[in-house]
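Subject: sequence -> structure tokens, single chain

Hey, anyone have a minute? Need the predicted structure for the following. Not urgent.
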Amino acid sequence: MSKIEIYTSDSCIQCIKAKEFLKLNNIEYIEHNISKNSEARKELIGMGYMSIPVTIIDGQHVLGFDLNRMKSLLNL
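Reply:
Had a minute. Here:
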């Protein structure tokens, strides 16, 4: 099973879509909400990102809700 982490915020529509996609495919993930967790925000900026969502699938970063790339990395 893939290790999946996703950086989100409360007001991000693309984040909601990415999480819905993962839930619909019964894929477990760890969410880091930068609206509620300043440490998560620092981690995201430390990785060089200033926008969300950022999904990390087995170490591979996906910026935004890139459905094709997510499907490819998840072998769907």
